Amino acid sequence: MLVYVPSHPLVKHWLAVARNKLSPPAVFRGALAELGRLLIYEASAEEGWLPVLEGQAETPCGIADVTFLDPGRPVKVVPILRAGLVLLEQAATVLPNSQTMHVGYVRNEETLEATSYLNKLPDRLAADDRILVVDPMLATGGTLIKVLEDIIGRGGSPSMIRVVTVVCAPAALQKLSSGFPGLKVYAAMIDAELNERGYIVPGLGDAGDRAFNTL
Ligand code: URA
């Protein structure tokens, strides 16, 4: 399966807050941050995806067998600027030791074509690197596909990539369904369609502008 939509009531609650056009920027940003936390938790839950080590810890009362995240194999978090920054706040706390590699794309509002203005991906990625791409709105899928192709071109493997988004549209999922075997997308909702400006309907509006109060 390509896309997972958790049915947790907290996901529904924070999505409701984010959907409401009357939610002020701080409330909207808080809702997206909560959704990021919940969805990143889900996206990293699959057994074997998070690299762990086994060991022992001395507690005040004895010795316990413990499992902890392997500090030598940090998850590489790739926020797509600008709106991805809102989900990133939570990635850094949900995933201890994660590394952040920002990528920035700007969308031409007429052609809807995205062009890159920032890329902090390393030259080479390993096929077993765990990579988490975060972007709250998956509308046409054009930007995400460019980012995924870039990651794969540097050595990353689609089956190790998890995408966390808040709302996605069928158009994007259709494009992602071929060419990225094993890719998994985690979303709070799949909405019906895009409007003529490429916005998701009903969606959330412009997530970056709402989060950063630049409407
Ligand atoms: N980007 C947004 O912020 N919102 C959309 O609906 C589509 C793309």
H/E element order: EHHEEEHEEEEEHEEHEEEEH
User: Which strand-content bin applies to the residues?
Assistant: 25-35%
Structural class: alpha/beta
Mean pLDDT: 94
Main beta-sheet strand count, sense and barrel state:
8 strands, mixed
InterPro entries: PRTase-like, PRTase_dom, UPRT, UPRTase/APRTase
Cofactor: Mg(2+)
Pathway: Pyrimidine metabolism; UMP biosynthesis via salvage pathway; UMP from uracil: step 1/1
Domain Phosphoribosyltransferase: 5-214
Structure, described:
- The longest helix is centred in the first third of the chain and has 19 residues, at 25-43.
- The chain has helices spanning 9-19, 25-43, 84-94, 142-153, 170-176, 207-212, and strands at residues 3-4, 52-59, 62-69, 76-81, 99-100, 103-107, 114-119, 131-134, 137-138, 161-164, 167-168, 184-186, 189-190, 193-194, 200-201.
- It has six helices and 15 strands.
- Helix content is 31%, strand content 27%.
- The strands form four sheets. Strands 1, 4, 5, 6, 7, 8, 10 and 12 form an eight-stranded mixed beta sheet that branches. Strands 9-11-13 form a three-stranded parallel beta sheet.
- The chain is an alpha/beta fold.
- Bound molecules: uracil.
